Amino acid sequence: MASPMSAGNFLDVLRDEGITVVEVGDWRTHNRNHKGPWGPVHGVMIHHTVTSGTANTVRICRDGYASLPGPLCHGVIAKNGSLHLVGYGRANHAGLGDDDVLRAVIAERALPTDNEANTDGNRHFYGFECENLGDGEDPWPAAQLETIERAAAAVCRWHGWNSRSVIGHREWQPGKIDPRGFSMNTMRERIHNRLK
Q: Which long-range contacts (CB under 8 A, 24 or more apart) does 182-187 make?
């Protein structure tokens, strides 16, 4: 069982991986911990935002909506590759997902098909939201994909996890399609190579 790293460690490992990090407001203490525990953590989840414009995307991911309060992730990965920290602790990003998928992530083995929504993912995953319309046409710039790779690898390296600890939201929760526009298997290969 892995306890989440401190906010300071999180910032350090991201910067040590060569990422341009932007700290947004009180991100270190902005969380949903009053709704339940954060941890033990077992992996990293990647999302797309269905938004455009970095400032707008960061604001939404920090503040959330009336029906889904923020933070909606720990970090927002912008089109230019910058990573904006908006919260730390429990965040409203993963929702309920498949317990079989969680067991596979913990065991670092191939993922089964997600067919249930019976397990609290907000407790167990670091979450990165990536600025993209999610329509399959909005491009994924090389700088953005590289930061996804670097951010996931940084967290995995700190915890001693391998690339199988990184999943897409679509692999966790039935009905989700994010991230749309790139292959999670290819991204895991990139993370694997970075961790070598």
A: 182/140, 182/145, 184/46, 187/46, 187/145, 187/148, 187/149, 187/152
- State both tokens at 183: 């292959």
- What is the predicted pLDDT for the residue at 1? 64
DSSP state of 4: P
Q: Which residue has the tokens 């700290």?
A: 23
Q: How far is CA 66 from the centre of its chain?
A: 22
For residues 75 and 152, is the Cβ–Cβ distance under 8 A? no
Neighbours of 80 (CB within 10 A): 12
List, for residues 139-188, the tens digit of each pLDDT value.
999 999 999 999 999 999 999 999 999 999 999 999 999 999 999 999 99
* Reported pTM: 0.98
Which of 2, 14, 164, 174 has the alpha carbon at shortest distance from 82?
Answer: 14
Nearest in space to 48 (alpha carbons), one of 175, 191, 169:
169
110-125 pLDDT tens trace: 999 999 999 999 999 9
